[in-house]
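Hi support team,

I submitted a single chain yesterday and got back a structure, but I'm not sure I'm reading the token output correctly. Could someone confirm the output below corresponds to the sequence I sent? I've pasted both exactly as they appear in my results page.

Thanks,
R.
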Amino acid sequence: MPFVPSDERDSIRIYVQAALDDLEYYEPLLQWLRPLLEYIRESRREVSPEVLRGEIEHNHNLLIELCDRVFSRTMGQAIRSNPNMESYKRADLALRVENCGRLMGYHKCPTGHTKADKQYCDMPKYCRRCARIEAYKRAEALYERCIPILSRMPSGYNFRLVTCTTKPSGDIRSDAELAIDAWAKTYRGIFKDDQSAAWRRVEVGSQNGMVHIHALVLSRYVKQPELSAYWEKRTNAPIVSINAVKGYKELKKTCYEVSKYVTDPDKHIEKYGLIEGVKWVSELAYDLRRLKLSQTYGMFRADVFERRMGEAPPAPKEQDPCHCDQCGELWTEYIELHEPRGPPLLNIIKTSGASGT
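Hi R., thanks for writing in. Yes, this is the structure output for that exact sequence:
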């Protein structure tokens, strides 16, 4: 197996090994992304760990790109073989996920800055890349909404990170529905008042499929035993935690904690292996379809925020697609690119022997 620094997750090793095992497909792409190709080739020979460590750190972004590609391609195969999904949806969804991250070209401004133009699937339930992007955008938007509240914090209130668990029943969808309903009742019964707010997110653990709620709550002080007793009456699970969030740095970290995707796909890869891990994530995504995995309450809602704060909530930061991110100049040139592809997958429909035999 290729050398990877000890602080890298085991999932990275698995993705890289999968690429090495299927170089016929990945070789054209790796030829295009030369620094990463050099890392993989050297890692297959006897090279000092120090040299490889430097290569990996230097090409970290390319390494993550390769991991995303391996995951997306494997997910496409899992979607095509999912018997629970409607057959007419499989091919389109699989193709959409497989093509996520494809480099279409890049923009160039007069000062020489460039920006990649990539194709995204916008399917975070099935895509490692888009789940990461969506979580980042949610966290940033939530943090921006928290800043004016934190600067004008009502007396006696504080932001708190709340985690509420359930007991795994073996039916993740039922557990998620129970947790969602119980949290709505818990917010109304424990936290809700004229100044409160909450953002909650459903998460599924990788070890035993335990569904739990992470929430950023703005509220008065609530005792943990009180919350535990209230939650247990509705879920038969008493394990909860509630901790004050102090300062801007901790608040931003908490915003990212409660904005993560419903499960960490890499943990499932590490537990089950690439094929089975991706299959588990695919089945989970399908199982949780049409459920509201995240929800805002109180002042985190735009209309309530404006009514109570006397101003509209901060608009999400959006980059002007016509201007350079770095200098603000208009893009003046677009260079179209065509990614190389490996050989197509061939499906054997039918085989037969020679006539007369």
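A quick pointer for reading it: The chain has a mean pLDDT of 85. Let us know if anything else looks off.

Best,
Support desk
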